[in-house]
Design brief:
- The structure holds two protein chains of two kinds.
- By secondary structure, chain A is α+β, with helices and mostly antiparallel strands.
- Chain A has a single domain, classed as Alpha-Beta Plaits.
- Chain A contains three helices and four strands.
- In chain B, the strands form eight sheets. In chain B, strands 3-2-1-7-19 form a five-stranded parallel β-sheet, with helices on one face. In chain B, strands 22-23-26-25-24 form a five-stranded antiparallel β-sheet, with helices on both faces.
- In chain B, a hairpin with a 3-residue loop joins strand 17 and strand 18 (239-240).
- The chains are: A alpha+beta, B alpha/beta.
Chain lengths: 78, 393
């Protein structure tokens, strides 16, 4: 019988600020409030909210609606 | 105040409730769920005892009421939903998000004995029964999730595969590459057509695969009972027929997620894609339609998943066999070893060079590259516009 291995499901919600245009579509579509648009020095930008990785459903709708591919969900098993 | 009733508290139902709470402030919103919500996509980690439940507090804080009950019937003429407890709820608009159940192909005798992998109790059973060997019928993403879970509890997973791994999401060579990788990690494969399920075995093309637990993972069947009994129009006889905004044959009733068809981003035709991405976007479209908007966020054919450590699978658009079936004359470019992953292919239409599909099996996450290609497919861009330098030119 194989040895049981630890299963860790890692989720990382990311916004690349250099690509983000602050359109707010990720904030609109996310069912668990993982994004908020804030005023930054370089204009409006989407920021990942606290606890986002724990809340994330991994539905990746944010990736689909982001017009500049600034939002990426990294998901992996260790 | 008009009433919106959402039937189902899975990902689609919860997304619809959250969207409705924000975009339909004039509506009184009720969600009917038959089980406390959890992230089904993360069922694998529930197998090792981790909490995957979802809090509904942020939705309730916006005035949405959750009713934990089952819907017995929808009375369309009276615009009523009858619950099993006997309670009746009125609606002006209804969103059906009843999801799906594991398929149980009639061609496999005794398939009802096999466990599905869909609910928390399935994860609990896999953990508590401590099986030594798990036979998994199917080659779907769920089948791979079960194999992952089996390894996590120290069991040996045996996949009984009729054709090839995740064939709708990977080019044939990539299914083979994935299988080779998973074999190295302890997953066994039996390539045969399953005929019957016994108490502790699966018979497949004359071969007996003995197992302590048998799991069926051949796909899903949309839970259309309520829709069918209410006389809503179906598509392919097994899913609720909806337009691009999720509207059913009854303009007051919408259907979203696994219970309904979506639309293929390549052909524009009705398609079926039972994943969370589509459910979330369909929920948004339905709520926006109720709000009076005609805008539609197109649903993608897009999957990113990881198995048994760093074995990533990416898919966008159609794989070549699917594209050919849809009438495209296609060619492929091997982009293995590039920014698109260890083993990867682009599929394009020969005459127009329009990009149609992408699939990849890789030991590393390719970051934003997969979604870039998904968008290039939706925007009908040419393969030459997105090819990495010095590849396939």
């Amino acid at each position: 019988m194989p040895q049981a291995r630890e299963m860790v499901h890692e989720v990382k919600v990311t916004v690349d600020e250099s690509k983000c245009i602050g359109c707010g579509l990720c904030e609109q579509i996310c069912p668990v409030r993982n994004f908020e648009v804030v005023k930054a020095e370089s204009g409006k930008k989407s920021r990942v909210t606290e606890g986002a990785s724990e809340r994330c459903f991994c539905c990746k709708a944010c990736e689909v609606v982001c017009p500049t591919q600034a939002v990426v969900i990294y998901e992996g098993l260790a | 105040m008009p009433d919106l009733v959402i039937v189902g508290a899975g990902l689609g139902g919860l997304a619809a409730a959250w969207d409705a709470a924000r975009f339909l402030p004039d509506y009184k919103i009720k969600v009917i769920g038959d089980e406390r919500p959890y992230v089904r996509h993360k069922l694998r980690v529930a197998v090792v005892g981790k909490d995957i439940s979802i809090s509904t507090k942020h939705i309730e804080n916006l005035g949405v009421e959750f009713v934990w009950d089952k819907v017995a019937k929808i009375k369309r003429e009276q615009r009523e939903v009858v619950l099993e407890s006997g309670q009746t709820l009125n609606y002006d608009c209804l969103i059906l998000a009843t999801g799906s159940q594991p398929s149980r192909p009639k061609s496999i005798e005794g398939i009802e004995k096999a466990m599905g992998f869909r609910r928390l109790e399935d994860a609990r059973r896999l953990r508590e029964e401590k099986p030594g060997r798990v036979a998994i019928i199917g080659a779907s993403f769920v089948a791979l999730h079960v194999a992952d879970s089996a390894l996590a509890v120290g069991a040996e997973p045996v996949l009984i595969v009729r054709s090839r791994l995740v064939r709708k999401s990977l080019e044939p060579e990539l299914s083979q590459k994935l299988e080779e990788r998973l074999k190295e990690l302890g997953v066994k494969f039996v390539h045969a057509k399953p005929k019957s399920v016994k108490d502790n075995a699966v018979e497949a093309d004359g071969e007996t695969v003995e197992a302590d637990l048998v799991v069926t993972a051949t796909g899903v069947d949309p839970d259309i009972r309520l829709a069918k009994e209410a006389g809503l129009e179906l598509i392919w006889d097994w899913a609720v027929k909806v337009d691009e905004q999720g509207r059913t044959s009854d303009p007051r009733i919408f259907a979203i997620g696994d219970v309904a068809n979506c639309y293929c981003p390549v052909t524009g035709k009705p398609d079926y894609f039972g994943i969370g991405t589509v459910a979330t976007l369909m929920a948004y479209n339905a709520v926006k339609a109720i709000q009076g908007s005609k805008a539609v966020v197109k649903t993608p054919a897009y999957i990113k998943d990881a198995f048994m450590g760093r074995n990533f699978v990416f898919r966008a658009g159609l794989v070549s066999p699917q594209a050919e079936k849809a009438g495209f004359n296609v060619e492929r470019i091997d982009v293995s070893g590039t920014e698109y992953g260890d083993h990867a292919y682009l599929v394009y239409e020969k005459e127009t060079r329009r990009l149609i599909g992408f699939s990849s099996v890789s030991s590393r996450d390719i970051g934003s590259k997969a979604i870039e290609l998904e968008k290039a497919i939706r925007l009908k861009r040419k393969v030459d516009d997105i090819l990495p330098p010095d590849v396939g030119r």
